Amino acid sequence: MAIMAETRLMTLQPDGKLLKGARPSMDEEFLLDALRWMLLSRLYDEKVIGLQRQGRFGVYSPGLGQEASIVGSSMALDPERDWIVPQYRELMAIVRHGYPLEKITATYMGKTTEATRIPEGVNVLPTQVALAAQLPQAVGLAWGLKLQGKDAVVMAYIGDGGSSEGDFHEALNLAGVQKVPIVFFMQNNQWAISTPRSLQSATPSFSLRAAGYGFPGVEVDGNDIFAVYQAAVEAVRRARAGDGPTLIESVTYRMGFHNTTDNPSRYEDKEQRADFERRDPIDRVVRYLRSLGLLDEQREDNLRAEVSAEVDRVIEAAAAEPGVRPDGMFDNVYERPPARVLKQREQFRGSNGNA
Ligand SMILES: Cc1ncc(C[n+]2csc(CCOP(=O)(O)OP(=O)(O)O)c2C)c(N)n1
Ligand SMILES: [Mg+2]
């Protein structure tokens, strides 16, 4: 007997019409705010990829095509008390949660190493490149919050590729046993660099794995902001009520590339890409808002111009930062650097003249 995934949650169809009988999970004002965040994510990505090509920005993994997944999930959280534990492709989720975009931008532009420090009061852990290593940390954080009697929830992000790591299993297992207040939000963007989803796992749906850990798994159309938000709100509500973890599989597509060193045209399936182009998460919301008479061409142009100006302002501010001294690489790694590191810094200063 074939194991079937539970039906994939979808509310808003690619043509911008609500599925028959479906109700939007956001009111109009909240949806306009979500659209603004999705546009910020997209326009920022487009602009900084251009800067990277000019040698002004570091290696970067854009969230192109995944904006509903990234923004919709984070909008279910309360930045005052909840925590985000990111992988590395959820930039606007952590920015919406309070991590200043200027600071991140300055780091990518080689202007500061300060962004490795999380500002006081911002409930975000550093981005993680060692796949799935963030998950045991996230479960520990959620467990700690539970033991402290806080009503806080942790949202931990993971990719389809990261889910093949042992840490994924260990973290989800412990989270289920201890019923910690956590939401595992998996962005299944069909790729782990050049490894396709079909070679990542034989499971018909990653969400099914949750059953093995004793908590619910849900699969959502990750390009449908209403569906993503609805699933995230429900999972956050469960976690906050003490009912334990949820695994959300957000089915989306990486429309950009793995990072700025990658060229997916060498391995990508053109038809699959074209299919997801038709399901663009931003176009879908624009069509919906137009059909309601809440957005016309003029208003959309204005919104794009406003967001674009905001991106320019952030980049200009970051570019004006003084830049990193060569010995800045020793900063912000240890709270109390060991003697060995202090000695290396002295040697480095001596040999490089560190102007
Ligand atoms: C433990 C570990 N193994 C391998 C890598 C190399 N690596 C970096 S990103 C990546 C792909 C991750 O794919 P996924 O988790 O789906 O995230 P996505 O890039 O698609 O957002 C790999 C294999 C790594 N960083 N860490
Ligand atoms: Mg992936």
Report on the structure:
It is a single chain. The protein has 355 residues and is an alpha/beta fold. The chain has 2 domains: 28-324, Thiamin diphosphate (ThDP)-binding fold, Pyr/PP domains (Rossmann fold, 3-Layer(aba) Sandwich); 325-355, no CATH class. It is built from 12 helices and 7 strands. The protein has helices at 28-53, 67-74, 91-96, 101-108, 134-147, 166-178, 197-200, 225-240, 270-277, 281-291, 297-319, 339-352; strands at 83-85, 154-159, 182-188, 191-192, 195-196, 217-221, 246-251. The strands form 2 sheets. The chain has a 5-stranded parallel sheet, with helices on both faces. A two-stranded antiparallel ribbon has the order 4-5. Helix 6 links the parallel strand 2 (154-159) and strand 3. Helix 2 runs parallel beside helix 8. The longest helix has 26 residues, at 28-53. The chain starts with 27 loop residues before the first helix and ends with a helix. The model has no long low-confidence stretch (mean pLDDT 94). Bound molecules: thiamine diphosphate and magnesium ion. Thiamine diphosphate (TPP) binds next to strand 4.
